[in-house]
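Posting this for the archive.
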Amino acid sequence: MPMTFGWTDIEDIVLALDEAHPEVDALSVRFTELRKMVEALDDFHAEPGHNVNEQILEAIQAGWHEERQEQAALDRDEGEPEDGSGYEPNQPFR
Protein backbone atom coordinates (compact mmCIF):
# COMPACT_ATOMS: atom_id res chain seq x y z
CA MET A 1 0.00 0.00 0.00
CA PRO A 2 1.50 3.40 -0.95
CA MET A 3 2.20 6.01 1.67
CA THR A 4 -0.59 8.55 1.90
CA PHE A 5 -0.72 11.94 3.54
CA GLY A 6 -3.34 14.40 4.76
CA TRP A 7 -3.62 18.12 5.42
CA THR A 8 -1.28 18.09 8.42
CA ASP A 9 1.56 16.44 6.47
CA ILE A 10 2.91 19.73 5.13
CA GLU A 11 6.35 18.46 4.11
CA ASP A 12 4.90 15.54 2.15
CA ILE A 13 2.45 17.87 0.41
CA VAL A 14 5.22 20.34 -0.44
CA LEU A 15 7.42 17.65 -1.99
CA ALA A 16 4.51 16.17 -3.95
CA LEU A 17 3.44 19.59 -5.26
CA ASP A 18 7.00 20.42 -6.25
CA GLU A 19 7.27 17.17 -8.19
CA ALA A 20 3.81 17.44 -9.77
CA HIS A 21 4.04 21.12 -10.72
CA PRO A 22 7.67 22.08 -11.40
CA GLU A 23 6.61 24.96 -13.64
CA VAL A 24 4.36 26.68 -11.09
CA ASP A 25 5.50 29.62 -8.97
CA ALA A 26 4.21 28.73 -5.51
CA LEU A 27 3.63 32.35 -4.53
CA SER A 28 1.40 32.99 -7.56
CA VAL A 29 -1.14 30.31 -6.62
CA ARG A 30 -4.37 31.44 -4.93
CA PHE A 31 -5.45 29.40 -1.93
CA THR A 32 -8.55 28.12 -3.74
CA GLU A 33 -6.35 26.77 -6.53
CA LEU A 34 -3.74 25.46 -4.07
CA ARG A 35 -6.42 23.49 -2.28
CA LYS A 36 -7.52 21.90 -5.57
CA MET A 37 -3.91 21.10 -6.47
CA VAL A 38 -3.33 19.36 -3.13
CA GLU A 39 -6.57 17.43 -3.31
CA ALA A 40 -5.62 16.23 -6.81
CA LEU A 41 -2.30 14.71 -5.64
CA ASP A 42 -2.30 10.93 -6.04
CA ASP A 43 -1.20 10.13 -2.49
CA PHE A 44 -3.33 12.78 -0.77
CA HIS A 45 -6.24 11.56 1.32
CA ALA A 46 -8.00 14.02 3.60
CA GLU A 47 -8.62 12.71 7.06
CA PRO A 48 -12.33 12.56 7.92
CA GLY A 49 -13.35 15.50 10.03
CA HIS A 50 -10.12 17.43 9.44
CA ASN A 51 -10.94 20.52 7.45
CA VAL A 52 -8.31 22.59 5.73
CA ASN A 53 -7.99 26.22 6.77
CA GLU A 54 -6.08 29.30 5.66
CA GLN A 55 -3.26 28.65 8.15
CA ILE A 56 -2.59 25.21 6.65
CA LEU A 57 -2.67 26.58 3.10
CA GLU A 58 -0.26 29.38 4.10
CA ALA A 59 2.13 26.81 5.57
CA ILE A 60 1.96 24.71 2.39
CA GLN A 61 2.56 27.72 0.16
CA ALA A 62 5.45 28.98 2.29
CA GLY A 63 7.01 25.51 2.45
CA TRP A 64 6.69 25.05 -1.31
CA HIS A 65 8.30 28.43 -1.95
CA GLU A 66 11.12 27.61 0.50
CA GLU A 67 11.70 24.25 -1.21
CA ARG A 68 12.10 26.04 -4.54
CA GLN A 69 14.52 28.56 -3.01
CA GLU A 70 16.62 25.75 -1.54
CA GLN A 71 16.70 23.95 -4.89
CA ALA A 72 17.76 27.13 -6.66
CA ALA A 73 20.56 27.66 -4.13
CA LEU A 74 21.78 24.09 -4.63
CA ASP A 75 21.72 24.56 -8.40
CA ARG A 76 23.84 27.71 -8.05
CA ASP A 77 26.29 25.96 -5.71
CA GLU A 78 26.97 23.27 -8.30
CA GLY A 79 28.72 25.90 -10.41
CA GLU A 80 31.29 26.84 -7.76
CA PRO A 81 35.01 26.46 -8.49
CA GLU A 82 36.80 23.36 -7.26
CA ASP A 83 38.55 25.18 -4.43
CA GLY A 84 35.14 26.09 -2.97
CA SER A 85 36.04 29.76 -2.58
CA GLY A 86 33.09 30.92 -4.63
CA TYR A 87 35.25 33.66 -6.14
CA GLU A 88 35.96 33.85 -9.83
CA PRO A 89 37.47 37.06 -11.21
CA ASN A 90 35.77 38.53 -14.28
CA GLN A 91 39.10 39.28 -15.93
CA PRO A 92 41.87 37.18 -14.42
CA PHE A 93 45.39 38.57 -14.41
CA ARG A 94 47.42 37.75 -17.49
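The chain is about 45% helix and 0% strand. Helices lie at 10-20, 31-39, 54-77.
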